[in-house]
Please model this.
Amino acid sequence: MTSTYQQMIFVNLAVNDLDASKKFFTELGYTINPQFSNEDAASVVISDTIVAMLLTKPFYATFTKKEIADATKTSEVLIALSAESREKVDELVEKALAAGGFPSGETQDHGFMYGRSFDDLDGHTWEVVWMDPSAIEG
Model:
């Protein structure tokens, strides 16, 4: 029996206030993996294959020689997450806004595809998108 390797993604994000960011993401329903978290970093488990690593700016700086972007002024990345339904898109975005996030962009409704976005506490943009499975099966 062969096991199927599932590639993972670890999105590393510089944050201003690690405790506030941890609280924000747990209010969205995600968990913190204590095994990979400490006073400089928090491992936010989004799914079995997606992890957001929240890093204090001084710790983040140890991984790069580049200037750290101020995500409230500069777009350094757009993080897109899939959702299982239009309702789940709305649910996650509403949780983010209630937890202190900010609306980002307009709602996109193309019938077969629906998406909304928010900025987290540090200005990183998260897009949440649902696509009708029958539209992709072709």
